[in-house]
Design brief:
heterodimer; A: alpha/beta; two-stranded antiparallel ribbon; 43% helix; B: alpha/beta; 8-stranded parallel beta sheet; 12 helices; 10 strands
């Protein structure tokens, strides 16, 4: 059970290294953002995982962020409308793509001989756009949605569930409640705003405490810029497992997309060495789990590995 | 042709031709449509417009569907958040691309010595077009429309084509803003298979609201041919002013388009004849239609 290695690291306060951006890496490698690139360029997704594994990650993350049934239905008025004017197979496409995404991560683990030593984290995003807490649906919808997502990833054999980019406590609670029925460790990251709290104004400290009390083994901050992440750390550091990963560059969404689209510009403004220095300061402050959000590359993670040793 | 001449043609119930799909044409020609390709592939945009002009379109539309300041803003929690992590100049991007889009359409008509072709600004709902539940409060959006329409007017668009609208309250605001800017407003709604709007309103409700606001042309668009027919059958008997249609062919495959053989250009023409019999005189194509579709239509009706 590769997760036991991580558990031990966390109990002995040894740093745990996560991977960096996956969606942004897909685009950076020239793949069109359609079905997450999974159908058109599975080899690229696998290569990205392999590159992160070779960079020395302790945990690998699946390329399943924002890959949900809901995400397809959101383009339509409702399921009937999708059925009438949408392409065939849309209702089951997210499930198929999630399964394919997990397979690609597993292939990368096998290819690098790390299947027994590096656990696979199944990434689950908020129901709606991670930067739009106001769109998050009522608690019961969240519960049903997250349960479906966990079921798919659990069936595929991931080692832990990683709720990434949660933006409000109601949904966080529902997600953790949904995960309670599965025998998998759960991590949860929150998106900080400029003031170091959640994007909807709720206190990150409260959200972090809630997540821990509801079963999250680790609480992280992610999907904020380096200053935003740094600014938020005091709200999650309390001696128990916590982590941080920042975006680099600037989010450049197209207008014609209602959901998150992992395009970032100016990512070269933060070099791998510079990023590693920032990560080092987070570790000094008491964070144990580090990685990179959108915009970071295998080179950034390699630099962090080099720094951690 | 000036708009006055086009209006005379429309009022005389001569068939007037719109172009076909633009975004889907970008896709069909092998590009992603994530940023409309206005700045990255200007030649591609130019060629698509030229192809539609050559196919006989009287009116070509800008490649600007879902391009608005709000669409960019919608990817962030608030403006402070956008300022912190958004790419620099994002809030100016819509305005810049609007100018670019009209310039490209203008360049296309000039390049073919077709200065009589008119340019319609493609403007959809502020929130996602197929989500009537997300329609913004009509009281609060006038200024947003005014700003956007002013950009198009300054850039030289001839017509405001409000398309893929799902309910009347937002359309009414859009028409009011168009009148304030002083350009013709054409309004196209999405019908559903039951002959009502996608947002649920009946065609009686539509025509009542539109009679108060008087769009220059009332149209139905962005639905498969059978939904267009269902909507038009309800709408035509209630509306004695200019009426138009442009259906989509194929299937929406978010965020792109699946081209299918369901309605080829000949079958699409048969549908157009039927819609013309029902009273539609402004005819074009929506997502999935190509210059060939428009050519068939213009050749038949001319």
């Amino acid at each position: 059970m590769p997760y036991n290695i991580i558990k031990e690291n966390l109990s002995t306060k040894k740093p745990v290294l996560l991977d960096g951006g996956i969606g942004t890496e897909v685009l950076r490698r020239g793949v069109r953002w359609l079905q997450h690139g999974i159908e058109d360029a599975p080899h690229v997704i696998r290569d990205i995982h392999v590159d992160y594994l070779n960079a020395g990650v302790d945990v690998l993350t699946t390329h399943t962020f924002n890959l949900t049934k809901r995400n397809f239905i959101n383009f339509f008025r409702d399921a009937d409308h999708m059925d009438l004017i949408g392409a065939p197979g849309l209702p089951t496409r997210a499930i198929e793509l999630c399964r394919a995404a997990v397979s690609l991560a597993k292939e990368a683990l096998t290819q690098t001989g790390k299947a027994e030593t590096v656990p696979l984290a199944g990434s689950i995003s908020p129901v709606m756009h991670l930067f739009r807490p106001d769109l998050s649906p009522p608690e019961n919808d969240c519960l049903i949605h997250h349960k479906e997502c966990i079921e798919i990833l659990s069936d595929c054999g991931v080692d832990l569930i990683f709720f990434e980019g949660m933006n409000n406590t109601r949904e966080a609670q529902a997600a953790l409640q949904a995960a309670a029925g599965f025998d998998l460790p759960v991590w949860m990251s929150f998106v900080p705003g400029v003031d170091g709290n959640l994007l909807n104004g709720e206190l990150l400290l409260d959200a972090a405490n809630l997540a821990r009390s509801q079963g999250a083994e680790a609480v992280l901050v992610s999907a904020g810029s380096i200053p935003m992440i740094t600014n938020s750390l005091s709200n999650i550091i309390n001696g128990s497992p916590c982590g941080a990963k920042a975006i680099i560059g600037r989010y450049s969404p197209p207008s014609w997309k209602p959901d998150f689209y992992p395009r970032f510009e100016d990512t070269d403004e933060v070099s791998p060495e510079k990023y590693a220095q920032e990560v080092n300061s987070w570790l000094d402050q008491g964070v144990h789990i580090v990685g990179g959000s959108s915009g970071t590359t295998p080179e950034h993670i390699r630099a962090v590995r080099k720094m951690i040793g | 042709m000036s708009y006055k001449e086009l209006k005379r043609k429309i009022d005389a119930q001569q068939v007037t031709f719109l172009d076909g799909g633009i975004g889907t044409e970008v896709l069909r020609r092998g590009y992603t449509w994530a940023s409309h390709q206005l700045k990255s592939e200007p030649e591609l945009n130019l060629e698509i417009h030229q192809d539609y002009i050559n196919a006989g379109a009287d009116v070509i539309t800008t490649n600007t569907f879902q391009l608005s300041k709000r669409s960019f803003r919608n990817h962030f929690a608030n403006d402070e958040h956008l300022e912190a992590i958004g790419v620099r100049g994002l809030l100016d991007r819509a305005g810049e691309l609007i100018h670019e889009s009209v310039a490209l359409a203008d360049k296309a008509r000039r390049s073919l010595d077709h200065s009589d072709t008119l340019i319609a600004a493609s403007i959809t709902t502020l929130e996602w077009c197929f989500r009537p539940d997300r329609s913004p409060d009509a009281e609060e959006i006038f200024d947003e429309y005014l700003e956007e329409l002013t950009d198009y007017a300054e850039a030289g668009a001839d017509i405001f084509l409000f398309e893929t609208f799902n309910s009347t309250p937002e359309a009414e605001v859009a028409i009011k803003a168009a009148k304030e800017v002083g350009k013709p407003a054409w309004v196209a709604f999405v019908p559903y298979q039951d002959g009502r709007l996608l947002g649920g309103q009946s065609m009686e409700e539509v025509t009542e609201a539109m009679a108060r606001n008087e769009p220059d042309v009332l149209l139905l668009n962005c639905a498969p041919p059978d939904h267009i027919t269902a909507g038009l059958e309800q709408l035509a008997p209630l509306w004695n002013k200019p009426l138009g249609v442009y259906a989509h062919v194929g299937k929406f495959n978010p965020p792109e388009w699946q081209f299918t053989d369901d309605y080829n250009a000949d079958q699409h023409l048969q549908e157009c004849k039927h819609w013309h019999d029902l009273g539609a005189t402004v005819i074009g194509g929506c997502c999935g239609t190509t210059p060939d579709y428009i050519k068939k239509v213009t050749e038949f009706f001319s």
